[in-house]
């Protein structure tokens, strides 16, 4: 019987290997890892694999995902890494052990709810270091902390920052020193010991490898480098890690010789785009049954020797080249982070977990050092 398609094949053995290597690597310089599972839809199978690898803290941006992991009784600390919305405060306190924050109004609401639920909720204040997503401006941090410390039900757990997510700002030696200097100043000024100095994400790898001093940083949030084995500033493979833990498989639903350029009066396509086409003469055009509704097509790279010509909401059109693709054949694709995120959150793409019972095998190919 044919396998379900489209599907994403997820090699849990490779994910576990990547997580263990990174945990050891960062741990050698005193940095603990939180596994960020938002890019994999907070898959319980993957979350359990991270815990088995020794990672004890899991993070997501969506409270519904933290709730699902909490209800599954996973043995981990749960972190909300998007500033909480005022409309979800009750659930944040209920299902997240800690959250990253930038608004005093939100923290006051967390305080009131924590008191109501007889809990202590930990907060990490995010500092703006130039990427211009979330963050308190550095000069405003002391006054902000003065307002946080007296709040009942709130534990000031740390300071964090973010790089290369919105503005593409790189965590350079200078940027990281500025962040560490701020942490030192805050700890001295308020006589605080901050258990979390969260200095970034998968974009920090090159800085981490090259720096002689990680400064005050003792925590990092990793998703892409665990799942895809890459740092995110240049997209370079990390030595010793697998880059192919995820593979998208789609089924051919049509394969015919057709012109390479549409014929007739032409306007915009279904997405409002005006597309140009290269005249290749007659080619074998193959269509696979998946499209933009389910995957970021620009983030796919065919493993099968074909070329992506374009896509609509439910179709990807390929130049089959020398491949004798027929209906029912399968085409395999590697994924970047955006493509992985989209297929993992699509309800229309089947998830197939490989090696669920054997997650350690050094014989599988991975990037060499």
Explain this structure to me?
The protein is of the alpha/beta class and 369 residues long. It folds into two domains: 31-227, TIM Barrel, CATH 3.20.20; 246-271 and 279-354, Lyase, Ornithine Decarboxylase, Chain A, domain 1. The protein is 27% helix and 24% strand. The protein has ten helices and 16 strands. The protein has helices spanning 12-27, 44-52, 63-71, 89-95, 104-116, 141-148, 173-190, 205-210, 224-227, 337-345; strands spanning 7-11, 32-36, 57-60, 77-80, 98-101, 121-127, 154-161, 196-198, 219-222, 246-259, 282-288, 300-302, 307-311, 316-319, 330-335, 350-354. The strands form two sheets. Strands 1, 10, 11, 12, 13, 14, 15 and 16 form an eight-stranded mixed beta sheet that branches. It has an eight-stranded parallel beta sheet with strand order 8-7-6-5-4-3-2-9. Helix 2 links the parallel strand 2 and strand 3. Helix 1 crosses helix 2, helix 3 (63-71) runs parallel beside helix 4 and helix 4 (89-95) packs across helix 5. The two termini are 40 Å apart. The relative contact order is 0.15. Residues 359-369 have low confidence and may be disordered.
